Amino acid sequence: MCVGIFKDELMCRIDPDFDETGIEKNGCRAMDFTKRPINGYVMIDDTGIKSKKGF
Fold first, then answer.
1. Does residue 54 fall inside a structural domain?
2. What string of H, E and C letters represents the secondary structure of 19-49?
3. How many domains does the chain have?
4. What is the mean pLDDT of residues 19-31?
């Protein structure tokens, strides 16, 4: 899976090498369905996708 919607967030697959820098972006957090972060995925809330530049 590359992209999806979960509740009110966008889930995106990213290069696992960018996990740390990915979650530093505005509105991003680690994907953690099982209470453990899953490498290579981030969740993006509405603050991270409000503008094209921010996204």
1. no
2. HHHHCCCCCEEECCCCCCCCCCEEEECHHHC
3. 1
4. 90
Specify if 55 maps to a domain. Answer: no
Residues 6+ positions from 51 with CB-CB distance below 8 Å: none
Average pLDDT value over all residues in the chain:
89
Name the token pair of 32: 């953690």
**Distance in angstroms (rounded) separating the CA atoms of residues 42 and 29:** 6
Domain span including residue 8: 3-48
Q: Which two tokens stand for residue 29?
A: 């957090």
- How many CB atoms neighbour CB 45 within 10 A? 15
More confident call, 51 vs 38: 38
The Cα 41–Cα 19 span in angstroms is 7
